User: What shape does this take?
Amino acid sequence: MGFVIEDGTGSSWKARVTPSHRQDVSSRAGSRGFYASRSGDYYTWTVATTNIDADDTMLYLVNDSTSTILHIDFIYVWSDVATEIDIGFPTTYVTPAGGTIVTGVNCNRASGKQAASASTARADETANSIVDLLITLHTNELATDQFSQAMVIEGKVRLGYHNAIQADIKTDPGAYNCTFGGWFKAD
Assistant: This one.
């Protein structure tokens, strides 16, 4: 007798095989970000249409949780001037100085979970500088045809306690937008 696969719900359904001795299956798969959102642990931090100076930090995000890792899923940037935008990490934790507080928004509105209290985010933050560069993104402003840049990294950037990521702009913009998206999960 061969191996029989039964469902785990107690309904006594058994898997069937095709005449060529193969099992036909249907499955659903989602990204880790999808599952984090489903459990209410996916957040975005966004600063929109703020005027800052050249070489300032567009958005600075630090994980303040001692028990969970902050997985960065995507980065979005836009500027109204052609510029380079450096995305990277400061080497040591520095308490954010100045700038505007940015509150994380829970993407699962049905979860009932509030803003991400396990993080600190600031726009136009000035106390940190990038030491370890992740990537430089370029925006192309052509007066009537402005381009944004989105970088999907699927949780590959992992921030432990007091680890930070930031986006620094090289040219003085009139306006910009910057968003980090990610989820908290214990290792």
